[in-house]
Amino acid sequence: MLLLAHGSLAPEAQESTRALARAVEASHGSRVEVAFLRHAGPTAREALGALAEAGHEEVVVVPLLLTAAFHARVDLPKALLDPPGKAPIVAPVLGGPTGVPDGRLVAALRRRLTELDVEFDAVVLAAAGSVDAAASSSVAAMASALGTELGLPCRAAFASATEPTPGEAVAELRRAGARRIAVASYCFAAGLLFRVTVEAATAAGVVGVSQPLGDAPELVELVLERFQQARDAKV
After folding, report:
1. What's the pLDDT band for 174 if we cut at 50, 70, 90?
2. CATH class for the domain made up of 2-98+215-234
3. Domain range summary for the chain, segments of one domain joined by +
4. For tag attachment on the chain, is the N or C end more exposed, with fewer CB atoms within 10 Å?
């Protein structure tokens, strides 16, 4: 299995992806490698080449992407173009191809919020952001699902590319009567946009910002399901 992440210049973000790979490998029992679309190595081509040289004839690529936006539609196919060895099997993105919220992502977000160990009466779901309207809609759908799970108001916000920003979403919730607002980080690793979210949320006076999804058990389970879905679809 090859976990293909967006990538980040931040070493801690790269290590977070590798920690997820180790957790998946421990659960699955077979080799799991990582590669990155941007900003870090190895590239998908390099990782696939190494796996081919090691004698792995069939590789399933699981994209660590939360929406089927630009990176899934453009960067992913480009990264896998003309691979060394046999063409890999590509699994659906973790957020799902239709944008329907997956219960395990909701559970992982709740887990990370619980780890804050603070009381809150509303939540901002902070994602990276995209100019792709469908991607923004899928984040909004996840915010709605998380709010339903928590029984609290929950608004989507974005660190870049579109609105509202985390600060704007916090202000909207305050106008609606919320006083203790927490931010749920809808990302895999603590890269640049996570830092932007933390800075904006802290400036807005939130009670806490959850850690990225990282190697949450629910995420491990979802990765394994996407892997199996891809293999089953090939048969």
Report:
1. very high
2. alpha beta
3. 2-98+215-234, 103-209
4. C
The tokens for 191 are 């890269």
Question: For residue 140, what pLDDT band results from cuts at 50, 70 and 90?
Answer: very high
Write the burial class of residue 95 (CB in 10 Å: 0-12 exposed, 13-18 middle, 19+ buried): buried
Of 230, 179, 199, the C-alpha closest to 3 is 230
| Beta partners for residue 34, in sequence order | 3
Fold (CATH) for 103-209: Rossmann fold (3.40.50)
Question: How many Å from the N-terminal Cα to the C-terminal Cα in the chain?
Answer: 17
pLDDT at 203 over 80: yes
pTM, 2 dp: 0.91
Cα 71 from Cα 143, distance rounded (Å): 21
Total residue length of the chain: 235
CB atoms near residue 159 (< 10 Å): 25
Max CA distance (Å), the chain: 60
Q: Is the peptide bond before 92 cis (omega within 30 degrees of 0)?
A: no
Buried/exposed code over 181-210 (b: 16+ C-beta within 10 A; e: otherwise): bbbbbbbbbbbebbebbbebbeebebbbbb
- Residue owning tokens 């048969």: 235
